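From the shared-data thread, chain only:
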Amino acid sequence: MTNYARVVEVGPEDLIYARYIKPLSPKAATSRKFWKVKERSFPVKNREGLEVKIGDNVEISIKTGLTIGAAFLVFMVPLILFAALYGVGGLFFAAEGPRALMGVAGLGFGLVIPAFVNLLKKEKNYPLLEKVLTLDELRKNVACETNCASCGGCG
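Structure, as tokens:
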């Protein structure tokens, strides 16, 4: 999956920090303003050592398999552990309350597992920097109907 971002910080070693530049729809922008959602930067690995400076527009790629694996780990593992411990609780307890508590314990344990997996990984799976975009490439690739000039492609 390919996305476009703007560099906000050049970090240590081969990391940069970026924010997505695709403009939000007016409805999404209003909702984010109401809930006071701040745009967060995320790390991107510059594996080829491209010359990047703050404010550059870049193309990044995210491996689809890693995205699916992370989603499974975060959403499905807790659900599976909930069902498994709830079922095992039925072997030991006749009442519904203790079985439900065992299920909730499995859910809680399943929510902690992704954090431990992330700690044990030696190499982090960051999005990868593919190329630095010129303004013309950005205008060609980012469709913008708002004319807000936030991405630099329409204004």
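Residues 2-63+126-141 form a domain with the OB fold (Dihydrolipoamide Acetyltransferase, E2P) fold (CATH 2.40.50.140).
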